[in-house]
Each structure stands twice: as C-alpha cells, then as structure tokens.
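Hello,

Our lab assistant flagged a job as stuck in the queue for most of the afternoon. It eventually completed. Since we weren't sure the result was trustworthy after the delay, we are filing this so someone can double-check. Below is the sequence as submitted and the structure that was eventually returned. Let us know if re-running is recommended.
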Amino acid sequence: MESTLATPKLPYIPQEQPPPTIFAIKCHLKADEVCPEVDKFFLKHWSFESQREKDSFIRGQYGRWPCLAMPMAHDERILDLCILYTLFYLLDDLAESMTVEEGKKFYKRLIAIAKGKTLPNRNNPSEWITYDIFASMRACDEELTDVVLQGVIVCVTAQVDEARTQCTDMGAVLRQKTKEAGAAFVTAGVKYGQKLRLSPEALESVRAIEGSYAKLAVTVNDVHSFDKELRQWNAHRQEGARLVNMVNMLARETGVSYQAAKRVLWVLIREWELEHQQLVSDRMTAQGGCDADLEAYLKVMEYAMSGNERWSETTGRYHSTD
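-- returned structure --
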C-alpha cells in the first residue's frame, strides 16, 4: 500500500539576498560620458571642506542616478538633469545640519532663486548653481521646467517639515518619506527628460501608478540606507529624536530584528511590484487607451524603479562607512 503521507516541506530559511526585481534595468547611453563631467563640475565649483568630502562625493555616484532612473531622456537634456539631481543631494546634506527654521529659510531663498525672482550670490555655489541650472533648463523648455520646480518645492518643503519627527507608524513614515524623497520631483524630471506633455486628465488617471512608484522607491532607499542612518543616529542621538526609516518602524511595531525587518520589506517591495504591473496593465487596457506620451511615461516609471534600486545597491551615500 502506498503511503498517504505528504512530502515533508523544507523549513523556512532566511535569505539575505533579496529576490530580483521584475523590471528591466536600463542605463542612459551617454552615462559614461556625462557622469565624469558632472563629477568634474562639482569638484571644481562646490565648497567641499576636505579631500575626504571630495572622495565621499565621488563614491556617491550622484550623476549616475538620473542615468539609471531616466535612461530614455533626450541626449541634450540628460546633463542638466544629472547636475540638477546631484545638486539636490548636496543641498540635502547641507540642510541636514540645520535647525528646522534654518532649513526653511535656506530653502525659501533657494526656491526664489530657482524661480528667477532673486539673484544668487555668485560666491555661494548652492545659490549660483541653483540659478544657472534652472535658467539652462528653462531656456530649453520653460513649461516642463516649471513642472520640475513644483516637484522640487514639494520635496524640500517636506524635508524641513516638523511633521517628519512626529511619524508614529509605518503609514505615516511612508507618506512623509514619499514627499521627502521627491517622488513628485522625480516624475517631473522624467517628463522633462523625455519631453512628455500629459493632459490633466491623463495625469489624474495615473495617480495611483505614481503613488505605487513612490512607495516602492522610498522603501528601497530606506532598506539600503538604514545601516548608515542607524550609525549616524547613534552617533548624534538627541533626546526624543526618532529614526524615521521604514526598517526601524517595522522592527519597532513587530518586535523583529532589523535584519528580519529588511527581509520582510524586500518581500513587500516585490509584491508591490506585481501590484504596480497590474495597475499599469489596467490603465493600458482601459477605455480610451493611452497615447504615445502616456505609454512612454508608464514605461519609464518602471525604469525609474529598477534604476533607483540598482543605484541604491552601490552608492557610497548608503554603503560607505564614513
């Protein structure tokens, strides 16, 4: 008589290597030409205080992020995008050491400069580079540059918002981080890079897809940046301060270790990718379909997710021990 016992199942074994993304990864064809040019520009003009800061900047590979996240950007626009996003990583570092009020004042002036309403101090690289890059982009495409600027405003306003210290659960952290990490800034950059002009109706129809991108990008960044954030938080801990990171919040809420929280988040990220894929499929087959610009926008959002993850795996911003 044959045994009716089920085949024994293997026990769960934690895997530190995350499952691969379902999205293709693509890099801009001019990346190897543009990225060294961006590094050279900032090494020449930015006020780095030491060789160590310069080395840390090079390890950040900031110019490569737009090349991976916006691989279909037009050739004549990719350099400005690389300078723009590199600039805002550096501005974020400057603002990190400021009080909330100092940060608000700092960004208020930079926003006025970016709008062209205030002239920059030419001895201050954070000001004149902000002015010049927006002037260059505006000369190329004023309409879409204004969309980018609106995304910038959402991003920097969130970074100096007192609400970031008051997040008490994962949902609050995710909502706050989505604004801080510049989801609106990224989607605007995608449109600028590819000259995509979408109607208000088309944009409204993909809000859920943009939100899907945002939570995926934020969570990937938090997983990769957590170890460094934790070291810095322990080194400069202030009474009552919170480490606003998805890994930390999940570990606190569930009682699991930090490593376990990372593994859980990687599974969640991959599940969200499947949901994102379904959202896109539903929109593509919806009544009325998609025009060429909207279809291109939906595709490049996938590149933005996979490119952000590839950059996050190697950037010294997250993985350096400095």
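-- support follow-up --
The delay was a queue issue, not a problem with the job. The result is valid. The radius of gyration is 21 Å. The first helix runs from residue 31 to 45.
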